[in-house]
Design goal:
523 residues; alpha/beta; BirA Bifunctional Protein, domain 2; nine-stranded mixed sheet; two-stranded parallel ribbon; binds adenosine-5'-triphosphate; binds magnesium ion; EC 6.1.1.7
Length: 523
């Protein structure tokens, strides 16, 4: 019963074509005419004006497989990558849409049929859970959706009621909004946070994975002097989104999106190229059943985001969208270096991404070489700008862990010689069992920021990936002290002492960072 990711994508679109939906190609990752949005992050983005009634199409039902990026902006999953099994920066969202045509009843019936019918996905209904909006002061409980779930055969004990945070969707302060229903899949006890405990739905985020979100656009939200006002829409609409990688995980019977055929070739490529460029030979560990370091998942994920973003015209820069891309590329490079790569390796990843995704997204095919050039240029730039600081940072992180291990009497012994990086992660593991988390010195990180132009987000990210804490207060304090010193010496008319080239670098990196913050805040 194996279905490849490509087959699943195609089956989804065919199913909805059979229900009178127009197949519409994915829109660009750079939203057209929507400066409030950093990247396309949902299938509905390209239909925003249709939902608002500002634009007419010659169809009232559509189905898409939409390229999405959730890194920066309102939905930011960048920090989740490497830590959860279900989040990516780039992913494909399968969606069916009704523009004032069918509503809740059909949306629920279609979703249930596709998921459970033997001719389609054939999922065991006893693995599925549904949620509905429980209601609040402004909007009543979604009893309609509740009834329709019962009608398709979901037993009452599998329907859960959740609050607005999970089950009420709004485009923004104003505009269409409404309750939603989410469908979850039980990956089983083995996928749970603690495989030895049988946890019920609602208590285990890893085990019960959200696969599909059905949004019922039912109201128009306006803001009046007396507060927000919800008016029923004359023609309610449907917007749904199902992560292709998540449904592939379910249908391929694996426990993680990263084990599906949408990722395994990329993870193999990441291992191959990292090793080719001087990295550790980790094949042995893996053959022994130990799990692959998260770095390869990060590299595979970021390779997809990088390839697709550049194909859609985003270039690395110090602000806005380009800065997010730069952050993604740098994070991938950092992870390659963590695994021992000492030369440019990341540009190699473009080819396997294009090979895997070029049929579904032909826009990639002719751009392979161009994308590779952008990436290698960025890798060169990494070496010129942050490599020195980045090495110092890794040393500092390593020292922090070693110090914590020494002062807490943690000893790691092994018959064979094990690489330092492996040793450290063992030490960290032992520290964790004692509830000790090493803290990266904010003051010393400030030194790296001042002297080598290390961006703050790069350093906090590295600490998080290493599994240690970051002393933000210490960083801020060191920064304030430096600013006070600078003001004092400025009054005295003297020049700053640090090398001007570094000072310049720090400033531009940081403008990029704050510009992004501002943009994010608007969303
Ligand atoms: P989660 O709660 O798991 O973060 P979400 O509620 O933020 O998901 P939605 O905004 O409802 O996600 O998006 C619709 C669907 O897109 C989800 O049901 C899921 O299948 C998929 N999806 C969302 N975010 C991601 C991601 N970062 N990577 C992969 N798939 C995703
Ligand atoms: Mg989310
Ligand atoms: Mg959710
Ligand atoms: Mg959701």
């Amino acid at each position: 019963n194996y279905r490849s990711g490509s087959q699943i994508r195609e089956d989804f679109l065919r199913f909805f074509e059979g229900k009178g939906h127009r197949r519409v190609h994915s829109a660009s990752l750079v939203p057209a005419n929507d400066p409030t949005l950093l990247f396309t992050n949902a299938g509905m983005n390209q239909f925003k004006d249709v939902f608002l009634g500002l634009e007419k199409r010659d169809y009232s039902r559509a189905a898409t497989s939409q390229k999405c990026v959730r890194a920066g902006g309102k939905h930011n999953d960048l920090e989740n990558v490497g830590f959860t099994r279900r989040h990516h920066t780039f992913f494909e969202m399968l969606g069916n849409f009704s523009f004032g045509d069918y509503f809740k009843k059909d949306a629920i019936a279609y979703a249930w049929e596709l998921l459970t019918s033997k001719e389609w996905f054939g999922i065991d209904p006893l693995r599925l859970y549904c949620t509905i909006f429980e209601g609040d002061d402004a909007v009543p409980r979604d009893s309609e959706a509740y009834q329709y779930w019962l009608d398709v055969g979901v037993p009452a004990e599998r329907i859960f009621e959740l609050g607005a945070k999970d089950n009420f969707w709004a485009m923004g302060e104003t505009g269409p909004c409404g309750p939603c229903s989410e469908i979850y899949y039980d990956l089983g006890k083995d996928a749970g946070e603690d495989p030895s405990v049988d946890k019920p739905f609602g208590e285990d985020e890893q085990r019960y994975v959200e696969i599909w979100n059905l949004v019922f656009m039912q109201f128009d939200r306006t803001v009046t002097p007396g507060g927000p006002l919800l008016t029923p829409l004359p023609k309610p609409s449907i917007d749904t989104g199902m992560g292709l990688e998540r449904i592939a995980c379910v249908l391929q019977g694996v426990l993680s999106n990263y084990e599906t055929d949408l990722f395994t070739p990329l993870i193999a490529a990441a291992k191959h190229y990292v090793m080719l460029m001087g990295g550790l030979d980790e094949t042995v560990d893996i053959a022994n059943g130990s799990s692959l370091p998260a770095s390869y998942r990060v590299i595979a994920d970021h390779a997809r985001a990088t390839t697709f973003l550049i194909a859609d015209g985003v270039l690395p820069a110090n602000e806005g969208r380009g800065y997010v891309l730069r952050k993604i590329i740098r994070r991938a490079i950092r992870h390659g270096r963590l695994r021992g790569a000492n030369k440019q390796f990341f540009f190699f990843m473009v080819k396997p991404v294009v090979e895997l995704m070029g049929t579904a997204y032909p826009e990639l095919v002719n751009l392979q070489e161009k994308i590779q050039n952008v990436v290698i240029h960025e890798e060169d730039r990494f070496i010129r700008t942050v490599e020195v600081g980045s090495r110092k940072l890794e040393d500092l992180i390593a020292q922090t862990i070693v110090d914590a291990a020494v002062s807490n009497d943690v000893v790691v012994t092994s018959e064979e010689e094990i690489p330092e990086i492996v040793q450290r992660s063992l030490q960290l593991g032992v520290l964790r069992t004692k509830n000790i988390v090493p803290v990266l010195s904010g003051r010393q990180c400030f030194q790296l920021y001042e002297t080598f132009g290390m961006p703050l987000d790069f350093m906090t990210d590295a600490a998080r990936d290493a599994g240690i804490a970051f002393d933000m207060e210490g960083f801020e304090r060191a920064k304030e002290e430096e600013q006070a010193r600078a003001r004092a010496s400025w009054k005295g008319g003297s020049q700053k002492s640090a090398a001007p080239v570094y000072r310049e670098l720090t400033k531009t990196e940081f403008e990029g960072y704050s510009a992004l913050k501002v943009e994010g805040a608007k969303i």
